[in-house]
Amino acid sequence: MPSFRDQMEAMWRGERPRSQLGQTLGFELVDYELGSAFFTMQVDEQHWNTMGTVYGGVMTSIAEAAMGVAFASTLAEDEGFTVVDIRINFLKPIMHGRIDAKAKLIGRGRTLGFVECELRNEKDQLIAKASSTCMVLRTKTT
Known about the structure:
The protein has helices spanning 4-12, 20-25, 56-72, and strands at residues 27-33, 36-43, 79-90, 97-108, 112-121, 126-138. The protein is α+β, with helices and mostly antiparallel strands. It has one domain: Hotdog Thioesterase (Thiol Ester Dehydrase, Chain A, Roll), CATH 3.10.129.10. A six-stranded antiparallel sheet has the order 1-2-4-5-6-3. The longest helix has 17 residues, at 56-72. The model has no long low-confidence stretch (mean pLDDT 91).
């Protein structure tokens, strides 16, 4: 299986499609580097709940993607990862416009890591704050 970096580079070159969920919801990876990632998406009525605001699950999905890429950027060739938990606090509703998700690794040990993500609207107002614990998975080599 190709390394995370190889997979990301193939996506940048257009040789590998982005995730199905990203395509469905409309979020895009803008940039990433070691321990951080930046995603963005445009939201409108298709992302609304019955109250006329963007579903919390949509915002959680873009935050999880950003935090996942930020964490995955630290993995060695023989490592994968899984999410142990996600916490998100919604601070301001959004109906239309752009959501920017900026994630950064706060700390990582041999097995666990902690990542945070801020979601902001196009006026740079904080609309949600998320955090996640990730667990490193190691593949067996023989």
